[in-house]
Amino acid sequence: QTAWRMGLPDCAFDIVYALVNEDGLTQKQLCELGFSSKQTVHSSIKRMVDKGVVELRGDTPRTQRVYLTGYGRKQYEAHIKAVLAAEHEAVAIFTDEEQRQLTSAMKRYINALNENLSALTFH
Q1: Does domain 2-92 have CATH number 1.10.10.10?
Q2: CA distances from 20 to 16, 82, 83, 105 (A)
Q3: pTM of the model
Q4: Residues 12, 111: Cα–Cα separation, whole Å
Q5: Cα–Cα distance, 26 to 7 (Å, whole number)
């Protein structure tokens, strides 16, 4: 819903969100951070390059990294920082101990889910 309200497709939102936190990521890193396929991220980046939101820097496709342009930063940085602030405020409702428990439970969940998904076979 937040991505839609910002006028961004989900994958583009994930990319901008990641780049506001750490500019100059590879497409592989963006795939991992946004849990998106290589093709989805590549297509989204291509559209964002065409709109002047991001740029690719590097000599070869293997060494290229994705950066927010000045326009992209101006358009989205304040919005992403507001999202981050809202996330921090939401976590702040928990005590320090509850935050530790939540983090521990999420790590266990992610590890168990990764194991279960890795064991799946598709024919």
Answers
A1: yes
A2: 6, 12, 11, 27
A3: 0.83
A4: 26
A5: 24
